[in-house]
Design brief:
Radius of gyration: 14 Å
CATH topology: 2,3-Dihydroxybiphenyl 1,2-Dioxygenase, domain 1
CATH architecture: Roll
Bound molecules: zinc ion
Order of helices and strands: EHEEEHEHEEE
CATH superfamily: 2,3-Dihydroxybiphenyl 1,2-Dioxygenase, domain 1
Structural class: alpha+beta
Helix content: 10-25%
């Protein structure tokens, strides 16, 4: 398991992309994930910074920003097999948000583990599709 990206919730995606570009991180990928009502931008060469902006006011990320302000949202780890990792996490007693993986940004299989199982940090598991 290795760090794949750090997810950061932002209010203004274009502004956040420009800010990271000024820090020297290039835009690697930008996409709207309709199922999550979120627009994402991956910055850098990996591990990435994933900037997340709500694509609608009632999206989970927009609610996060409205309640807590912009800031760190989750840590994502790359795993060789997401199904195996979900089984391992469940057996270890972790609270899974996604019992089955779904297709996230970049076409990767992703699943989330509840922050209550990881010291208050939302964890995303990523099985890279390429
Ligand atoms: Zn993520």
């Amino acid at each position: 398991m290795k760090l794949h990206h750090v997810g950061v919730a932002v209010a203004d995606l274009d502004e956040a992309i420009s800010r990271h570009e000024r820090m020297g991180l290039k835009l690697a990928h930008r996409e709207t994930v309709a199922s999550q009502q979120v627009e994402v931008a991956f910055m850098g060469d990996g591990p990435f910074v994933e900037l997340l902006a709500g694509a609608s006011p009632d999206s989970p990320v927009a609610r996060f920003v409205a309640q807590r302000g912009p800031g760190q949202h989750h840590l994502a780890f790359a795993v060789p097999s997401i199904e195996e990792e979900l089984k391992r996490q469940a057996a270890a007693g972790a609270r899974l948000i996604d019992a089955c993986p779904r297709i996230g940004a970049w076409g990767h299989k992703v699943a989330f583990v509840h922050p209550k199982s990881h010291g208050g940090v939302l964890i995303e598991l990523v099985e890279e599709s390429h």
